[in-house]
Every structure is written in structure tokens, then in C-alpha cells.
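Order emerges. For instance:

***
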Amino acid sequence: MRAIRQDEPQWTVPWLSYSALVESWASAADSFSATTDQMLSFADRTSSPERSLTLLCRGLPSAAIVLLLASDRQRLIAMTSALVELEAHAGERELLDAFTASLAGASSTASLSMATTRLAQRGLALATALATCALATIRPEAPLPVEMRAAAMATLSKAGATWLASLLPQQ
């Protein structure tokens, strides 16, 4: 048995995705771009980079949210395809569908509703809250389902992240 090193993808991909999220929402564009590139380079070291971007984040779709904020629709589509045969990640495929639809300028309401329900069943309210903030950031003119916005506001308030909640449009 070998020891796990902290520079291996299972550690670095999630941590770099968290860092990139903060950089994006802090409007640090250059840092966000560099951290996103670094996150992707670590994911590319795995046998299935697109699948790893979802699985290594262990239920918090932070890498997918980073790619949404980076408008990387092609990578999001590849991540969705990589999850086709996996059943254990309820809500994540639907969230990826919503992200790709949003980047294409299409409605993502149906996918978002399904993703929200499935992620909530898994106890992942923070995942939905962060996804809601990212969608509001990337397409501020697109309407968000009222219940999704309310749930995101409640989760972010409970977490003491009012600064992030302030990014959500008032409806």
C-alpha cells in the first residue's frame, strides 16, 4: 500500500475548484483563470478527466460550477457524457445538463428542478445554493425558479455567506 500524496488529483481538484469559486466571486479574473487551468491539469492526470471532475469533488459539484463560470460548455458536455453509466450520483448529471443549457442560452428550469430535488435528497443543499449563485452570475437575466432561489438564500444565510447570497437577483 502506498501513501496518498497531497499533490494527487483526488486532493488537488476539489481544493483548486473551491479556490477558483472564491476567486471568481471575488472578481479576481486572472487568478480564477490560472486556478481553473491548474485544476484541469490535475484532472487531466487521471484516466478519465471528465468523470474525475465530478467524482473527485464527492457530491459538491464545485469543478462543474467553476467550468460554468468559465463558460466551458464543451468540458461540461464531456462531463455529462462521462456520467452516463453511473447511477450513484443523483442530481449531478441533471445539474450538468442545466449548466450546458444555460450556456447555450436555453431554458434550464426542468433540469434544475430535477437536480435540486435529487441533490436535496442526498443532503447537498450547499451544492444547489452554489449552483444557483453561479447560474445567477453567468446569466443574470435568466429567471431562476423561486423555490430554488429561496432555498439558496436560506442555505447561504445558515452558512453565514450573506456576501454570496447578495449575488442572487431580487425577484
